[in-house]
Amino acid sequence: MLGQLRRIVQDVAQEPVLQSALAGLVTSIKQALVTECCSVYLANYEQQHFMLMATDGLNRDAIGNIAIGFSEGLIGWVGQREEPINLAKAHLHPRFKVTPEVSEDRFSAFLGCPIIHHRKVLGVLTIQQAAERVFNEDEESFLVTLAAQLASVLANAEMRQAASESSPSQIQTGQLKGLPGSPGIAIGQAYVLQPANDFNAISLKRADDPEKELAHFYRAVKITKAEFNRLAERMSGHLPPDALAIFDVYHQLLDAASLGREIEQQIAQGWCAKSALKRVVEKFARQFDDMDDAYLRERGTDIRDLGQRVLNNLLDTEQRKIKLPQQVVLVAENVTATMLAEVPREQLVAIVSLKGSVNSHAAIMARALGIPAVMGVNELPLLHWQGQRLIVDGYQGHILLSPVEAICQEYQRLISEDAELNARYLAEIAKPSQSACGSAFNLMVNSGLAIELETTNPEYTGGVGLYRTEFPFIMRSRFPTEQEQIELYRKVLECYPDKPVIMRTLDVGGDKALPYFSIIEENPFLGWRGIRLTLDHPEIFLVQIRAMLKANLALNNLHILLPMISDLAEVDESIRLIKQASFEVSDELCIELPKPKIGVMIEVPSIIYQLPELAQKVDFCSVGTNDLTQYLLAVDRNNPRVAGLYDAMHPAVLRALYQLAQQAKGLQFPVSVCGELAGEASGVLLLAAMGYSSFSMNSSNLAKIKWLLRRVEMSELALLLPEVLACQSARQVRQHMQRFLDQKHLLSQLRA
Ligand code: PEP
Ligand code: MG
């Protein structure tokens, strides 16, 4: 059953034309369940009806012609109840609606199942039979499982269809909806980067010139065969002859008599070379996957491996032809720091990440760079983006594909307005960081990408409130040496003489992976991350601390911050190692070292409840609202599916932050906030109202936050706080804050 189910869903996902996908779907289901009729109806919300889109069993002439209102008939009822309805005598049911055009009078049994994606009913899947019987549990669970899996495939199907019908030269306009990752608007051309060529990234496309596609394919096969010859030669002394035989098999498979012929046929039918390869490789690989014999099943892997190599060679030729556009919108499955380094800063105008969410590190990097980003837009296969002109609206989380000129002009106007607002904020950058009534704030920057990218002059900041050391680690292909780290940290510390620079020890894991130190976990955000990893690898931790201490010589502005602390024992152990590193450096250089201040990130809820003990052990703490929100609400900050639930303005998070501020004040324990909330207009006002006065943010936000804080009185924030803390949802909190900003005539001057 499972194999059948998977095959049906894959067939639908693969077929670029929605109508054919649905026609194939109903026939496959009918055969799999050995029933007499299967149909699919899709919802049209504008017209408020379900339309019959495909059937195998009812009158086919009714396809595309029969619409059933949302509150009509059994189909409407399945949609309303949002659950399966299983009836032996459907025609006797009071909700049954006679629709002569579909000719269903011979069927009695009816099982209808809603297709629901993200709480929205997309359609209804039905099976019917002449016999008066209730469909059994196996049949019902098959249909329910299938409908659940189909939902996301169908949700993306229309966009895929539009994509497959357009050739790159054709103008195809459309809007894609993702999540706002970093505010701002940009117009540019998509430039796709991918870690490895992957069949999932290939959208099926037709081509006009089969001859050209064939030549393209033959060339890739020729290069692949030459690669195999080289590999076989290199391995011949090391592998037994039967293992080497795999290369002969690959050669044969690529020959005209085998996979090669099928691919040629697909190209002759009008598919481009990549699509033809994908269709054939996936078809054969799946046939092997479903075989009972373990040896034969493994051959599916060989076919995929072979296909992957040919695909790499096909794409290599294409990629070589692609020039970096003037205005780059970097598009990738998961934008990484290394990818950002591949595009010159002055050409990079926006980021689109197919995966990830609002507080993924890719989004944080975009905010640090001050460029718009949209996250979690996975409707289009990766390679289809290549070369498309795009408008990226990082405020709304929208992307406009190949927009017409009039729309571009409208967005260009918004870009100019943004620039004017920015100029307004920057005009006050040198003024004191204080409220309208004179209450002082310490505004620091979050850093780590590359110090030369920071947009705010260090003179106008209170220092670095969070230096994320992991980025330099991620950009390399091995752990940086002590000397490399010293040079790096020294540069940062030198940029801020006489101001604190809070360097966080390595915080990898979660959504920050080191390319050379793979961590594969089921639950990475709850796993081996931050301090947990470095305490298990004291050699990494000690080298980093030694490098920090040496970089700090004669500057003495280093503060050390420990990430992901959830337990006091981790603090003790970290302090022990810091002392050890300090002793070693002191011994090596024969000098007395100054003791840097040590702090702890408050980002795991457990540590909020151990603040008195923590205050005895370390000098300061810094609140990481990004992770604190994730762990308090149990919402993965990186998962677009639950992005709607992730909100640092959730009343529970705000109450925890308030409690923390009060407790820290009572303990006289210095506290600052370095999570993204501190760089948000409403967020910083609420934090200030709670009593926080030290904030660290992306430098692109600093001027705006200073400008805003200079326009509020502490007394009005004090009145605002209890009203907000009494709200019942993040939405209510945001609305309340909007009203406050509006009343003060600030809202229109703060787009984000
Ligand atoms: C945080 O969690 O709020 C934080 C500042 O750290 P990061 O975003 O790097 O996890
Ligand atoms: Mg964190």
Characterization of this structure:
- This protein is an alpha/beta fold and 752 residues long.
- Helix 1 packs antiparallel against helix 2, helix 16 packs across helix 17 and helix 21 packs across helix 23.
- The strands form three sheets. It has an eight-stranded mixed β-sheet. Strands 21-20-19-18-17-16-15-22 form an eight-stranded parallel β-sheet.
- The radius of gyration is 30 Å and the shape is globular.
- It has 24 helices and 22 strands.
- The protein folds into three domains: 154 residues, Beta-Lactamase (2-Layer Sandwich), CATH 3.30.450.40; 233 residues, PtsI, HPr-binding domain (Enzyme I, Chain A, domain 2); 317 residues, TIM Barrel.
- The two termini are 50 Å apart.
- The structure holds phosphoenolpyruvate and magnesium ion.
- The site of magnesium ion has 4 residues, from helix 19.
Oligomer class: single chain
CATH class term of the largest domain: Alpha Beta
Regions with pLDDT < 50 over 5+ consecutive residues? 163-172
Specify the structural class: alpha/beta
Mean pLDDT: 89
- Bound small molecules, which ones? phosphoenolpyruvate, magnesium ion
CATH architecture of the largest domain: Alpha-Beta Barrel
**CATH T-level topology of the largest domain:** TIM Barrel
Record field, number of beta strands: 22
